[in-house]
Amino acid sequence: MTSSPVSPNRCQGMRIAAILAVLAAIGAGAWMRADRGMPANATTNADADVRLVTTGSIEHRVTALGLVEPRTFVDVGTQVSGQLDRVHVAIGDTVAEGALLAEIDPAIYETRVRGDEAKLRNLEAQLAQARAERDLARLRDDRARRLFRSNALSRDEADTSAADLRIAAAKVDALLAQVSEARSTLDGDQANLGYTRILAPISGTVVSQTSVVGQTLNANQTSPIILRIADLATMTVRAQVTEADVVRIRTGQPVRFSTLSMPDRVWESRVRQVLPTPQTLNDVVLYDVLIDIANPDGALMTAMTAQVFFILDQAIDVPLVPLAALHDGADGRVVALRLPDGRTETRPVRIGLVDRGHAQVLAGLQPGDAVVIGPEPAMGGAPGTVGSWRSGGRPPAAAMARAAAPAP
């Protein structure tokens, strides 16, 4: 059994019927919108993501990484060579300035001091003898001059007496110089003996120890380090900033940072100094920026990693709109504003500071306004009027009708 072919007239009739059906649907939709007081080009996309314009703070900032270190620390070493005899502190101890930290074996230096003292006593005794001889020579010279004036003594004997006085005085002067030299040597050896007792140069905490008891320290070749004392009450963050950003960093600029171990705790301070000499790591030029911060509870520790935010500009308690709601319009930025009756309105806005998620609203929106997150709004209508929203759903009925119409 074979089916009869469809006639051309019948095909044309079916196409016209389809067009009429679409037009009827368009008319019904327009009637429903008119009945609800909605313009023909408005849409109500109930599935769109809607966010509210909120009030908050926003910042324009530069981000960098840094390390926490004590602002003040001293590597305590020894000025004399010898065997480390005792260490009176341990890592973590708090010490006051002038406290005894360690001792070098003093035997050699004590021996030197005793020898210097003996030598000095000997020279002082010789000096006393020389002074006595000088005084005797002066008396003899006075008597010789009196006898010479009375012609009781020859000139040769008078000249010899005067020369003996000058020799005695010169001997006294030479011994005075030797005594001064001996005293200087004694003072130096006494100082070295004192250096065998190593005292704390500052108040702080012992954070490391390099040398151990029994180790021989040679101060003639290097500067042996025994331990390090740091003042942990004030810490410094040494942040590394790229050359592209360092030109925007200034002394006194506000800074905010957190550490890797305490990401939820935020410290606030200001830039103390931008060091002028950079470092080059993997062909990247980095400048050190120093930030001081009080550390009364000791939460900040040496070598902690810090994420630093240099605040270039900020706005406090201003309207904020999600970046995903902003789109480029013909004359600037626009948003799709969700009206209370469910319609979507295209509205131009003027924005200020921008961060990763929000933008400051300077004009066009108020806190509490609802904006649609998603694809950009159609720009066919004038700004401020109700327009359609490209929701990615079914195309409008007019477009369907144009698609169903027969080709001319």
TrEMBL record:
The keyword Transport is assigned to this record: yes
Gene3D superfamilies associated with the record: 2.40.30.170, 2.40.420.20, 2.40.50.100, 6.10.140.1990
Domain Multidrug resistance protein MdtA-like C-terminal permuted SH3 span(s) in chain numbering: 320-374
Any Pfam family: Beta-barrel_RND_2
Coiled-coil region(s): 113-142
Record keyword Cell division present: no
Residue ranges annotated for the Multidrug resistance protein MdtA-like barrel-sandwich hybrid domain, each copy included: 74-227
Domain CusB-like beta-barrel: 237-308
InterPro entries assigned to the protein according to its UniProt record, in alphabetical order: Beta-barrel_RND_2 (IPR058792), MacA_alpha-hairpin_sf (IPR030190), MdtA-like_BSH (IPR058625), MdtA-like_C (IPR058627), MdtA-like_HH (IPR058624), RND_pump_MFP (IPR006143)
Multidrug resistance protein MdtA-like alpha-helical hairpin domain boundaries: 120-196
UniProtKB keywords: Coiled coil, Transport
Compartment(s) of residence: Cell envelope
Membership in a protein family: Belongs to the membrane fusion protein (MFP) (TC 8.A.1) family.
Name of this chain's protein: Efflux RND transporter periplasmic adaptor subunit
